[in-house]
Amino acid sequence: MQESENRLFKFPKFEDLIIFEDDDLIVINKPPFVASLDDRGGGEVNILRLAKRYHADAQVCHRLDKETSGILLIAKNPQTYRAVSMAFEHRRVNKVYHAVIGGTHTFEQLVVDLPILNQGNKSVSIDRANGKAAETIFNSIQYFKHYTLVECKPVTGRMHQIRIHLATQHAAIVGDGMYRGKPVFLSQIKKRGFTMAKDQEELPIMKRFALHSKNVSFSIEGKDYAFEAPYPKDFATLVKLLEKFDS
Q1: pLDDT single digits (tens) 120-168
Q2: Given CA atoms 180, 34, 37, 80 in this order, what sign does their dihedral have?
Q3: Per-residue buried b or exposed e for 89-102, using 16+ beta carbons within 10 Å of the residue's own CB
Q4: Cβ atoms 206, 94 nearer than 8 A
Q5: Which fold has domain 14-246?
Q6: How far apart are the first and last CA of the chain?
């Protein structure tokens, strides 16, 4: 318990994560390294627990991977939870993610339509025979010498969908070791003037995979919603350094 309480103080206040709130809905810009929901161990601080401290009836309407940052929708009552959940289920929610991938890739409305099988234990695979339908649309939005910033639009919502679909294009997200994505080190892109102490180990620019939920839009009960979440510090720093040293 002590460890989880200590970790709590490292997170911003829940109120500081909120980018929109009305009588029915809370929208936050989820920081990386925080789970959306309770894990089986139950000991870690997560968004659901923080949200319930803020509003007792709060329910997280969908989930982001623990390392993924960005827009997360939280209902303040059962009716809104049902409405948003149904919008996701019927694919009426428009979701846009940004990712930094290894290599230079020109994606122009590239549709990856490959079924995904959830194998349990947070592991998935492409399985044409037994997998569930999964579709993602990719567009390149900024090119660097060795990397590409990509817009990802998942039509469906399978576990690890964007990550594994990019990997099938030999374009894994940087830092995503599960799908052979390699981290970015400053020494790789800053060829001149990079120095480090001899006994110091270089850490990657981002200590997670570079995936961010940027935009979400939908309509429920005749009301239109559209949200945008700015990059967190680590993602913004990576893009800035690529612009400076890898353009």
Answers
A1: 878 999 999 999 999 999 999 999 999 999 999 999 999 999 999 999 9
A2: negative
A3: eeeebebbbbbbbb
A4: no
A5: Pseudouridine synthase (3.30.2350)
A6: 46
- Taking the CA atoms of the chain, what radius of gyration do you get in angstroms? 19
Q: Does the pTM of the predicted model rise above 0.85?
A: yes
Closest CA to 124 of 78, 65, 200, 45: 65
Length reported for the chain:
247
Using DSSP's 3-state secondary structure scheme, residue 11 falls into coil
Of 123, 209, 114, 213, nearest in space to 159 by CA: 123
161-177 exposure pattern, b = at least 16 Cβ within 10 A, e = fewer = bbbbbbbeeebbbbbbe
Q: Which residues are catalytic?
A: 65
